[in-house]
Amino acid sequence: MRLLLVWIINAVSLLAVAHLMPSISVANFTTALAAALVLGLVNTLIRPVLVLLTLPVTLLTLGLFIFVINGLLFWFVGSFISGFVVANFGAGFFGAIIYSIVSWLLSWILLPDRGVR
To answer: Fewest CB within a 10 Å sphere: which of 1, 21, 87, 93?
Structure first.
């Protein structure tokens, strides 16, 4: 149940990013659900490999290169999901940051903390 709620929160976050940034567009909620699913899979499967491969650059930039990786992956998902358009790398970079903030904020508000009992 919690996984389904997180998926919906991420889809709503994508719609919020599309509303806040004119260079990112999402056709409808179904597209947002598909893009949120693919973003989750890409962040689970591909992102750790990229972080490991770019570890020297990440260390040299004191971790800031991870923002570049996130932006590239956001832009990458926008390139092959029909109805989810990310105009360029800059839009992907800032869109990924806004997406993370909105997703975290909605999760913090809507999801109960499992550690407190």
So the answer is: 1
Residue 113 CA to its chain's centroid (Å):
22
Distances (CA, A) of 100 to 93, 104, 114: 11, 6, 20
For residue 48, give both structure tokens.
Answer: 């750790």
Question: Tokens in use for 12?
Answer: 């709503």
Q: Is 85 exposed, middle or buried (0-12, 13-18, 19+ CB in 10 A)?
A: middle
Whether the model clears a pTM of 0.70, i.e. scores above it, the answer is yes
Tens-place pLDDT, residues 29-88: 999 999 999 999 999 999 999 999 999 999 999 999 999 999 999 999 999 999 999 999
Q: Compute CA 70 distance to the chain's CA centroid, rounded to the nearest angstrom.
A: 7
